[in-house]
Each structure stands twice: as structure tokens, then as C-alpha cells.
Amino acid sequence: MDETDTIQVHLYVDSAGQLLVEVDDPMPEFPGFFAALAWQPAGEGEKPRGLWCVQEAGAELAFRRWRDVNGLVMGKAVQARLAGAVPEVSA
Questions:
Q1: Is the distance from CB of 75 to CB of 24 less than 8 angstroms?
Q2: N or C: which end of the chain has fewer CB within 10 A?
Q3: What is the spatial distance between Cα 28 and Cα 69, in angstroms, rounded to a whole number?
Q4: DSSP summary character for residue 17
Q5: Could you report the per-residue pLDDT of 29-88, keeping only the tens digit for each?
Q6: Which residues, in sequence order, are bridge partners of residue 75?
Q7: What is the separation, in whole angstroms, between the first and last Cα of the chain?
Q8: What Cα–Cα distance (Å) separates residue 16 from each residue in 11, 27, 31, 74, 79?
């Protein structure tokens, strides 16, 4: 990925008020996904990683592969689901 690449971010709110944030990635695989979820900062000087920060904010993390109209895998979407992130608004 270089500075001319575009990253697409999608935001959805479901009927339960959960916010789903999806970040598209052209790589269909996520090697080390579960290791990345289990990662913890080793010491005070170590900078946190993005997925760790999102989990610390209470998000559930997952990823899914996305396909074109012919069913060909074109990449993946990394997902963060935040329960209760969107307050109910009465009309």
C-alpha cells in the first residue's frame, strides 16, 4: 500500500443500535488474525496496535471476505462491532 491507495471505511447502525465499522482491504486473507487479537503491549514503552485499541474500546472484531458479482474473492473487510454505541433517539 502506498500514499495513492484509497482505504474505504463503511459505517452501519443495526436495529439494536450497534455500530458496525468495516474497513476494506484488498488482501483476501488475514494471516495471524487471532494472534493479533490476543496481542498485549509488552511494556510501558511499547505503542499499542490498532486492533488492540479497538478491542480496549469494547468492540468485537472479525473479518469477512468480499466477492465481486461473479463470486470471485476480491479482498476482505475488517469489522468492529460496538454494542450500544448509538443511543436510541425518539421521534
A1: yes
A2: C
A3: 16
A4: S
A5: 888 888 888 888 877 777 778 888 888 888 999 988 989 999 999 899 999 998 775 666
A6: 66
A7: 44
A8: 15, 30, 31, 30, 17
Tell me the pLDDT tens digit for each residue of 27-38: 888 888 888 888
Assess contact for 54 and 62: CB atoms under 8 A: no
Question: Residue holding cell 448509538?
Answer: 86
Q: What is the pLDDT of residue 25?
A: 85
What is the structure's pLDDT at 1?
55
Chain length of the chain: 91
Look-up: residue for cell 482491504? 25
Residues 2, 58 contacting (CB under 8 angstroms): no
Phi, psi of 39 (to 5 degrees): -60, 140
